[in-house]
Design brief:
The chain contains four helices and 14 strands. The chain is an alpha+beta fold. The strands form four sheets. Strands 4-3-6-7 form a four-stranded antiparallel beta sheet, with no helix packed on it. Strands 11-10-13-14 form a four-stranded antiparallel beta sheet. A hairpin with a 3-residue loop joins strand 6 and strand 7. It comes from Ceratodon purpureus.
């Protein structure tokens, strides 16, 4: 390859050397001067074109990746693979991108001076962009959290190729992207496993409703639970549970706490009387679109009596 390129360069030098510039003098008409310069450029172009075989670059959207996906935003990277068949590097002037869903523009922009594609080479150029879900939901009334949107990603490349000139390469890719929704978590009941004033262990029975139209696989569950305005504890639980889109799943979460920290509120809970609770936390899930971090928060009031009656003496 190197020998062929050396021969091409030598041939180019010989051909360009044959092109002569004639001093037309300052008294010549301006049109003649312009003709001389343009003629020189034309001669050089013909000399170069006669030596090299020029071709149009090829391009393709080789990837549409979402490395960050949560309830607030999606960070997207579009990979564009560009092939340069020519013997010299070519400049990538502009990259114009647009992401839409059923004609609704979600994101658009231009990356100027996007780089240079090496001679006889391939380059993957990355286009980073961010979708802010709040902006999308506020703009389009028919888009809500929990939906899966069809998308059309278009990329237009503007490339300067010697001899050929500036060319435009349009690309597109279709797929789906979610608008994640927080899960709805309810504390149904408490099973008392061991009762003691010093330490009590129990099992929380939780109901988790998947508010999204896509399935989620729960990998871990983190929570902080307050009952009667007293923190009953916090923990991180490894849990493997799949919940279908818009489906309901159950979780059993063990917890240990000291009853004497609660005062009389604990006894009301154990007797099945209504009490308020607040639970905040997050679940780590797998989805068809990649891993997600889904936070949740729930404040409610319920009776938290276990399955079996408990006697207090």
């Amino acid at each position: 390859m190197a020998d062929n390129e050396d021969k091409e360069v030598v041939a180019l030098e010989q051909n360009v050397g044959k092109v002569t510039i004639e001093d037309r003098g300052s008294n010549k008409p301006e049109k003649e001067e312009e003709g001389g310069v343009m003629g020189f450029i034309k001669d050089v172009g013909e000399a170069i074109g006669g030596i090299f075989s020029w071709g149009k670059p090829d391009a393709d959207i080789s990837g549409f990746n979402i490395p960050v996906l949560n309830t607030k935003r999606a960070e997207i990277i579009i990979d564009v693979l560009i092939t340069n068949p020519n013997p010299i590097p070519i400049p990538l002037v502009d990259m114009i991108y647009d992401i839409s869903s059923d004609g609704r523009k979600l994101c658009a922009g231009t990356i100027p001076d996007a780089g240079t594609i090496h001679a006889h080479g391939k380059e993957t150029v990355k286009i980073p962009l961010t979708l802010i879900y709040k902006d999308i939901v506020d703009t389009f009334d028919d888009i809500e959290p929990g939906q899966v949107l069809p998308y059309l990603a278009t990329v237009t490349l503007l490339i300067d190729v010697p001899v050929i000139g500036r060319i435009t390469i349009p690309l597109e890719k279709k797929g789906e992207i979610p608008i994640p929704h927080k899960p709805d978590v309810d504390l149904d009941k408490i099973d008392w496993d061991h009762l003691s004033l010093e330490e009590t262990s129990a099992t929380l029975h939780l109901t988790l409703k998947n508010m999204n139209k896509f399935d989620i696989g729960i990998n871990s569950f983190q929570y902080d639970l307050q009952i009667a305005d007293v923190s009953i504890g916090q923990a991180s639980l490894k849990e493997s549970t799949e919940v279908k889109g818009e489906g309901v799943g159950s979780l059993q979460v063990p917890i240990t706490f000291r009853p004497k920290d609660f005062g009389g509120a604990l006894w009301d809970i154990m007797r099945g009387r209504g009490t308020g609770y607040t639970m905040v936390g997050a679940i780590e899930v797998d989805t068809p679109f990649g891993p997600m971090h889904l936070p949740f928060s729930k404040t409610s009031e319920t009776t938290l009596k276990g399955k079996d009656e408990v006697s207090y003496h």
